[in-house]
Amino acid sequence: MRTLVIGLAAAAIATQAGAALPVGARAPDFVTDGALGGKPFKLHLQDELKKGPVVLYFYPAAFTEGCTLEAHAFSAAAAQFRKAGAEVIGMSRDELPKLKLFSVKDCRNQFAVATASEQTARAYDVFSAKHPQYTNRTSYVIARDGRIVMVHDDPDWSQHVARTLAAVRSLKH
Question: What CATH number has the domain spanning 2-169?
Answer without folding.
Answer: 3.40.30.10
